Amino acid sequence: MNSLIDKLQHKIDNKTKPLGSLGKLEDIALQVGQIQNTTSPELNNPTIIVFAADHGLADAGVSPFPKEVTHQMVLNFLDGGAAINVLSKQNGINLKVVDAGIDADFDNNPNLIHAKIAKGTKNILETPAMTIDECNKAIEKGKAIVQEQFNEACNVIGFGEMGIGNTSSASLLMSKITAIPIEDCVGKGTGHNDEGLKRKKEILKQAFEKHQLDSDPIKILSTFGGFEIAMMTGAYLRAAELNMTILVDGFIVTSALLVAYKINPLILENCIFTHNSNEQGHLHMLEYLNAKPILNLEMRLGEGTGAAVAYPIIKSAVNILNQMASFDDAGVSNKE
Questions:
Q1: Entry pTM
Q2: What is the pLDDT of residue 188?
């Protein structure tokens, strides 16, 4: 029994319970132990970072909401009134909000990280969303923001997002990377009815066909992405480099992971998929990544809410590994 996996599995199996009886909790405990390279892992200063930005494609009618809602919702985050605020507070998770590229200016606020690349991306129907240089700047800022959290002793991190039109960017990224037809990647997003969904599919098919791209993930990201998605891509990459446990949220956050995965396939070893979003394309993304999410609560809010809801389950798995008695500790007879 020399390998870490063997030692972890022995520790899990020797707890005072029938073999395998804690199901997915045992799988999670094994994964976190492997990530941290120890049989006694710890979850320190859990943090969710919400990246927000505007999208030029929003002006084309892909969302029933105006892009001003991005700015308004970020103010709501800063005031503590959004779902992610409630869930983070409830579960002892630090919350950070990032202006990655919102089409508005903010006063100084201790709860806001100013990282604006530009006031929104360009309209993908006309031109790539951003330049390669802007894309790389966003990736580097995402890396730096995660590094700051790591420097404050955070070792478990999740990402959320806000940006009117960003389900459209996520759908385009997904289709290009997975080769799934764009029509099968598009969902209702923020409140479309059937007619709105039909129009959204038509617009995205037009945008997809305009840009002839090879498989270079940075070119794909700069063409179809948003500044918040590009920053999340960098955030994923740095979190994996730092051996952090990564909590993966829903559809848009996973689109950024698709890009990061194309850059570094080993990143999946650090990822715990927290839930299956009710947005149509997310299940296809999870299947592409061979990922098995913890929860399916039919959520599709974004903001990192799925990660926040699932975090106590991950904490339970680690606590069982560290605190539950073994048969030897408890003096309980194990099966021969």
A1: 0.95
A2: 62
